[in-house]
Amino acid sequence: MLVITCPVCGVEGEEADFHCGGEGHIARPATENPDGISDDAQRDYMFMRKNPKGVHFERWRCDRGCGKWFHACRDTVSMQIFGYYGITQRPPAALLKKADPLWQAHFEAAKKPSAKKAKS
Amino acid sequence: MSNKPYRVPTAGTGGTVGRVIDRSQMIDFQWNGRKYAGYEGDTLASALFANGIRVVGRSFKYHRPRGVLGFGSNEPNALVGVGSGNRQEPNLRATQVELHAGLTASAQNAWPSVEFDVGQVNSLASRLFPSGFYYKTFMWPQSFWKSVYEPIIRRAAGLGVAPEGPDPDTYEQFNCHCDVLVVGGGAAGLAAAEAASANGARVIIADENPQFGGISDIAGGTIGGEAQSKWIAATAASLAKSGNVHVMNRTTVVGHYHHNYVMMFERVAEHDPNLLSSGAPRHRLWKVRAKQVIIASGAIERPIPFANNDRPGVMLSTSVRAHLARYGVTPGYRGVVFTNNDDAYRTATDLLAAGVPVGRIIDVRAEPSGPLIEAAKSAGIEISAGSAICGLNAKSGGKHITSVKMAPYSTSGRVSGAEEEIACDFVAVSGGWNPVVHLHCHNGGKLDFDQKLQSFVPKPHADPVVTIGAANGTFGLGDLMTEAYAAGDKAGKAATGSKAAKAAAPKAASETEGNLEAIWFAPATGKYNEGNKHFIDYQNDVTAADLELAQREGYESVEHTKRYTTLGMATDQGKTSNIIGLGVLSGSTGKPIPEIGTTTFRPPYTPFSFGSIAGTQVGKLFHVVRRTALFDWHAEAGATWEPIGDWRRAYCYPKGEEDKHAAINREILTVRNKVGLLDASTLGKIEIKGPDAGALLDRVYTNKFSTLKPGRGRYGLMMNEMGFLFDDGVTVCLGENHYLMHTTSGGAERIVEWLEEWLQTEWTDMKVFVTAVTEQWSQYGVAGPKARALLEKLEGDVDFGADALSFMGMTEGTLAGTRVRVFRISFSGELSYEIAVPSHNGRAFWEKLLEAGEEFGVEPYGTEALHVLRAEKGFIAIGDETDGTVTPLDLGLNWAVSKKKADYLGKRALDLPHLAAENRKELVGLLTEDPNEVLPDGAYAVSEVSEKLPMDMIGQVTSTYWSPTLNRSIAMALVKQGRAKMGQKITFPVADGKVVRAEIVDPVFYDKEGERQNV
To answer: The CATH number of the domain where B254 resides is what?
Structure first.
């Protein structure tokens, strides 16, 4: 069972005091532009996940504390947690460097002006 | 073999024999219904040995007689039932059960008795029980499953007998934190704890045995120039006295989880009836979060399988030595030692020193040498090097060994040449040592294969965990102490930041030992395996031949072989068998062991009690119950209960002799004809306030809410992003930018979190607060033609006139002396109001409603009447008509699904091909041909009834009731393209070949025009 520290209220607790909301940084297409979302784009939004074997960015909620959502950077193999950041923030550079290459590609693509704006 | 003196006298042994027992304290106990005596300090196993009892159980599959093999927690054979009645506990290891006055214990898996067991015929028929026996045998015909195969498997599977009746003892759980947790109180563990504690760290050291020291008492060697056991005793005592070390015996670390979460099982009072009766808990489960974990769990000796190596009297070498040294018992009169290493020579010399003759040391190594070998030689013990046991003779149905057969053994794994028979009645066997890596692996640790040990050792761990001593493959006492001190010091400093000087480890030394020679089993001479079984896993009766057969049948992966043969899957989790099994697989596949790999080590390390898992959460504390303000009133009114989430809601209120059905029918007709009262307080209530409140509602509901005027309400549907319906309810506008959302009773908490999640993570610029107020308000439904008349009798400033408060309107005011919110909403189709009052006024207000309604014949109605009333009206209920795969369109709720709104949750999903498909199931009503026939809930409709399964399923019943209003049965169902089938009849094959036919109709059964609620 993991030990997690909420970056919002600062409380340290057991995994069971928190709730994992799965992969972070998933942009909801309809929020940006509800028209013209292809079936594929909708499928990817709902079902396609990176699921890396390695360092991952996840959403967690401080269930029994302040109730706020935040991001955690966790190794899915060793279960180590390397850091936390706000739910509306992009991963700090130091964490992104540690992360699985899939994540580096994700934020690289988001930087390109031609690409659709990635939610952060 | 009974009643012979197997207790070795202390005299003449220099006090090295029977160190743990107190020969002045006799203890009576019962074994299989007969009385025996042992000494204070005995285990059940040693007391049975002392009484000459060598058969303590029957094996799982073949029912072969079995005796004690190991000691402590590694014992695979001697599983016994202890206690009786409601204190019966099955599957305890006799080697761990401490003897106390009045102890009763019995053998398991034996009928009629452990001495004569009928199931032994399985052994004669063992050719019929190869690996994968169940899979191969219990296959066809299908009809045999229920009546023949399942009863056989159920009777054969499982060991031991469950207790009868509730457990009379208490159990508890502790949560705690520490700086350093040391697992194991042997020399390494104590040394590490001492070094950590010298840094001021808060240390817990736990050992599963009553005494500390592991096997230091029989391992030879010196610490600080004295016998190991002296240093052990002194160190354990000084740690216990220090203020910062919690020293725990009889405490097994059963699980080690992520981030150093450790589960410890403490046997507090099990061994001591006086302590138990004084109120101490029987067991205690500790949940420890340790900054640093040091695993010093030692190593387990492995046997060398040889032909019929499961006969009672074949024991691990250390088990023989420990039983002699600690309890002064010997398994027989004349032993033979079979080994591939030096340590077993200690057993031979110790036996001889205690006056037990040793017929031979049989060593598979061609040229063993070293101080231990020399000591055995000079004691006059005959040694046969380069030899192996190739067979064993026994009498009395295998219960009594008479001799072993020995033959020359070569490194190629062959046994050949002249056999020699050596008379003996027990065999001490040693095949080397397996570090106890279980706890390291529980927490995701990986392993390396150590060639010298021919076993696995831990690799470095990602968590602050370190394994030391024998568990790390460090066996020399000098190295072990240095490693342990360094690890303890490092962990102590890491946890506390201490800068204390490092304490020097005391000087320690042990005899040098030569290398072992890998041997995974010693084949029998003569025709291969003829009548000879080489047992690998004693508890599950897995033999070398089983493993080889699995290989031949293509079970190449070790994980598959394990499941096919059940190797290592018994309650001992393969403590003595896993590595040997891998060795046998290595031999038969020609692959080295590291390539074969290990199976997963799963918690718990040893079984622990359900009582400790439940702890104090039993009886009234089992589950939290949420109560409305009327909970006591419902109970006084004789309500039967329905659990909804953690709530208890009144299901119905039977009167006098009435059964539930009669009560429900009466309650329904009261609402239809007079007026009924419902405690609807569990309904979820959420206040939503802020400039963007309306915009939020527009995003989460399928229909539009921002246009709602103050004092008006609207029924709304919520979808998830997959387009599936998951909650509904009426939301009212309380004022500008201020709404009150009603959710289902079960959904209240979920919906608050749902709204919060979207606000925090997606629509982060919205200015709106979401506040759960479910428990702030008691809410009562007043439904029926007399509802208005009843409410108008109450004093207050609320105008209940049809125009003043029209359908779907709401108002606030004062009624019967309390503040109220009045909603004119209806889930029954009748003229209906819901009145919310502050919860502390709930019961008083309810009683005023009853009083005012007396002249109209008012009665309370429960949740079942509520459901029938809504079903008569064709209103859906989340969880009945929906199952997480149903869209609003499936339910015909298109009117509530906006086409105009640009975006709301689930909107885009409704256009996905599988949701927009034509052949989806649609909600319809059903009227059975026989109006008295109530369809079973969940019954399947089929396109055609046929004799043989499967049939083509076209739909299922979602709600089904007897309607007293219509005096017939009604049902709703989801049926493929149901709306196009109006008027058609469909068939439901129900239980026992019966078929029910029903006509598809509109799901609104009663008052289709809705006139009754609009008066």
So the answer is: 3.50.50.60
Eight-class DSSP state of B148: I
Cβ of residue A9 closer than 8 Å to a chain B Cβ:
no
Minimal-distance CA residue of chain B relative to A35: B902
Q: How far apart are CA B473 and CA B25, in angstroms?
A: 40
Q: What is the pTM of this model?
A: 0.90
Q: How confident is the model at residue B161 (pLDDT cuts 50, 70, 90)?
A: confident
Tell me how many residue pairs between chain A and chain B have CB atoms under 8 A apart: 64
Between A1, A30, A46, which is nearest B259 by CB? Answer: A1
Query: Is residue B471 in some structural domain?
Result: yes
**Residue B979 within a domain:** no
Task: Tell me whether residue A55 is in a domain.
Answer: yes
Question: Domain count of chain A?
Answer: 1
Q: Using a CB-CB distance cutoff of 8 angstroms, which residues of chain A are in contact with residue B912?
A: 39, 42-43
The answer to whether the CB atoms of B902 and A34 lie below 8 A apart is: yes
- ipTM associated with this complex: 0.94
Spatial CA neighbour of B235 closest among B2, B23, B508: B508
Position A116 scores a pLDDT of: 43
Buried b (16+ CB within 10 A) or exposed e, A67-106: bbbbbbbbbeeebbbeebbebeebbeeebbebbbeebeeb
Q: Does B757 touch chain A (CB under 8 A)?
A: yes
Please give the biggest Cα pair distance in chain B. Answer: 114
The shortest C-alpha distance from A105 to chain B (Å) reads 22
Q: Cα separation of B926 and A98, whole Å?
A: 60
Domain-ending residue, one of B803, B823, B857: B857
CATH code: domain of residue A50 = 3.30.2270.10
For residue range B70-96, list pLDDT tens digits in order.
Answer: 999 999 999 999 999 999 999 999 999
Rounded distance between C-alpha atoms, residue B967 and residue B934, angstroms: 12
CATH number at residue B775: 3.30.1360.120
Question: Is B917 near chain A, with CB under 8 Å?
Answer: no
Q: What Rg, from alpha-carbon coordinates, does chain A have?
A: 15
Given a contact cutoff of 8 angstroms between Cβ atoms, the answer to whether B7 and B328 are in contact is yes
Q: Contact, B818 vs B839, CB < 8 A? A: no
Structure tokens at B337: 């030692």
Structure tokens at B235: 């160190």
Q: Which of residues 465-494 of B touch A (CB under 8 A)?
A: none
Q: Tell how many helices (H) and how many strands (E) occur in chain B.
A: 26, 50
Of B493, B509, B525, the domain-final residue = B509
A117 inside domain: no
User: Peptide bond preceding A7: is omega within 30 degrees of 0, i.e. cis?
Assistant: no
Residue recorded with tokens 């005899």: B511
What range does the domain containing A103 cover? 3-111
From chain B residues 889-908, the ones with a CB under 8 A of any chain A CB are 902-903, 907-908
